[in-house]
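Sanity check

After download, print the first record. It should look like this:
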Amino acid sequence: MGLPGMVLSAVSVAVGAIMYWAVTYQGHGFRLSTVGVILMVVGVFGFVVSAVVFGVSRGSIGSNRHSLDRQVTDAQGNTSSVHEQSK
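Expected structure tokens:
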């Protein structure tokens, strides 16, 4: 989801608004304005959900902690694992 979901939701809201306010065709059994309202509601809901997912997935901004796991080989060919953590 995230950013692509936000874009798709914004497009859905725009299409729904066009269908609600700009299209005057009245079909038999359904109204395009009703479909436009449904698209706008679904688009707003999708935008909120995508914004929450996007915000959570970015992690904390103020975090300065970094960790590094790597494997080290010395001159004799012996390997060992190293875990480094810095602030």
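If your output differs, re-run the checksum step. Summary of this record's structure: The helical segments are 2-21, 32-57.
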